[in-house]
C-alpha cells in the first residue's frame, strides 16, 4: 500500500514539474527587474539636443529622416512603444542594436527617449 502512495506522489511531482516547464515561468532576474521599474520623467522635448545626439549616435543605422536603414524606422516609434520601452531599448540595446548605457548619460538617454516618444 505504501508503495502505491509513494509512486502516486512521485507521479504527481513529475506532472507538476512538466507543468512548470511548459508554462515558461519568468526567471528570478526578470521578476526582480519588473519590481523596480523605471519611469521616464515628464519633460519638454528638447529637439535641438536630441537631434544632435541622434546625428552622432543613431543616424548610421536609423537614417537621416528616421526612415530606417540597418535599424528599424523610428518616424512613428512613439505610437508603438512606451517611453519606458524606448528608454530600456536605448540603454540596454536589443538584438543587433548596441547598448548606449556607457556612451550616454542618463539625462541624454531621457532627452532622446522623450524626443523619440513624441514621434507619433
Automatic annotation (TrEMBL):
The keyword Electron transport applies. Keywords: Electron transport, Heme, Iron, Metal-binding, Transport. The keyword Heme applies. Signal peptide: none annotated. Pfam families: Cytochrome_CBB3 (PF13442). Residues 45-120 form the Cytochrome c domain. GO terms for molecular function: electron transfer activity; heme binding; metal ion binding. This is Cytochrome c domain-containing protein.
